[in-house]
Amino acid sequence: MARLPEAALWLFDSVGLTAFLAATALAAGPDFVGGLQKSGLSLVAAGILVCAIPHVVTILVGRFLFRMHPGILLGVCCGAGTSAPALAAVQEVAKSKIPTLGYGVTYAVGNVLLALWGSLIVALMSGR
Question: Most buried of the four, 54, 84, 92, 123, by CB within 10 Å?
Fold first, then answer.
């Protein structure tokens, strides 16, 4: 069985996905600037709140109500946010693979909800 060097795994895991996201963001850049000019900073503030509030609530409820291990809890947040680069960053800082324990199920649920709610919002916005 062949073994990949650790550096090659890191390159495929982190840089590959990050490069894909960067290319996608560059393609969406002109639309973002137009939306920012039209809607102003309230659009940016709303985006920050919509992204941050669920994670903050998850961390508070998981830590104080369910008494979850912080590493697993951060893995849950990475999975719910469907963010593999965030999981890699948490694992690197923790120097542990423990966060992956909370990642798998929440990643699957997050992707299903993202697809369902994304389609629903598009349908509602188009008036169907």
Answer: 84
Question: How far apart, in whole angstroms, are the C-alpha atoms of residue 70 and residue 47?
Answer: 26
Number of H helices, E strands in the chain: 6, 0
- How far is it, in rounded angstroms, from Cα 35 to Cα 28? 11
Take residue 63 and report the two structure tokens written for it. 């830590």
Q: Hey, how many other C-beta atoms are within 10 angstroms of the C-beta on 105? A: 12
pTM here? Answer: 0.67
Tens of each residue's pLDDT in the chain, 128 residues:
568 788 887 777 777 777 887 888 788 777 777 877 887 788 788 889 999 999 999 999 999 999 999 999 999 999 999 888 899 999 999 999 999 999 999 999 999 998 898 888 888 888 76
Q: Cα separation of 55 and 80, whole Å?
A: 8
- What whole-number distance in Å separates Cα of residue 47 and Cα of residue 58? 18
CA 37 to chain centre: 26
